[in-house]
């Protein structure tokens, strides 16, 4: 039986392992970026079966021979983190690697490809900002972007077209998985004729809704610099404007991952503008966002949502639990709401005036 001193030493050593895990966790997304930039998932997908390291190295023509041995170590690390799967056999000389559900989302050209989102999320501009967390929290500057770069995220996007493009491509790719969830929510769209997608960017969400429910007329509503040069289709059109001023009239307003960008005060302003735009009896606001529920989720889901909350905090946004969502709805003058728990990270909330 260990003494109290021995137990204390064990606890401290275990604590060291936890700290090391946290300190070096930044390596995970960087290795993921490495895999995306080299097209590892594409190579395995095109190979048609699990691939050996020698076969993978042969396909990675951009890796010089002197560094070929590093590939196995990268792949071992990524497999440990659930990006790829290792298959070992006593009959085979080399272990093989196959795609997992996570890396299937990294195959370019697939319906649900998230490589643009990975490249945006690991952009040096975003990553470098976090070195300024201490100065930001202890200072008077409103957001982390303003502390690190001297201007807000939205101003930075406006002044840096390349970053704006990467941001929009990342957000658009993140929308693709909606196809897998909205088709199970057909009742939400029944009885509607017109929908405004507020902050709809290049129209990815509106196009997905249009494909699933072709009778609907959809308006993508965003800032002039976002939608000014975009062309519509028979049932998807683009309108420029400011959601803090007014929103086009429709049966329903869609807010897909918009409100988590903003403070409670700004969210209430946006929701009030939405309420003014849905004058018909069947009018409602359709919100697609994460809902934090630490007591009823697995660790990965909760950790992802809480991590995203820190990210949103740096631009004065936040992820919310149901109680916090309800407070916003009541403050904006809405009477009731209904939550649909979608598969994955997000929920759909119907909000009624």
TrEMBL record:
Transcription regulation found in the keyword field: no
Alphabetical keyword list: Methyltransferase, S-adenosyl-L-methionine, Transferase
Domain of life the protein comes from: Eukaryota
Pfam family, one: Dimerisation
Residue ranges constituting the O-methyltransferase dimerisation domain according to the UniProt record: 23-108
First-level EC class: transferase
Annotated O-methyltransferase C-terminal domain residues: 130-335
This enzyme's EC code(s): 2.1.1.150
Reactions catalysed according to its record: a 7-hydroxyisoflavone + S-adenosyl-L-methionine = a 7-methoxyisoflavone + S-adenosyl-L-homocysteine + H(+)
Gene3D superfamilies according to UniProt: Vaccinia Virus protein VP39, Winged helix-like DNA-binding domain superfamily/Winged helix DNA-binding domain
GO BP term, pick one: isoflavonoid biosynthetic process
MF annotations from Gene Ontology: isoflavone 7-O-methyltransferase activity; protein dimerization activity
Database matches in PANTHER family: O-METHYLTRANSFERASE
Protein's name in the database: isoflavone 7-O-methyltransferase
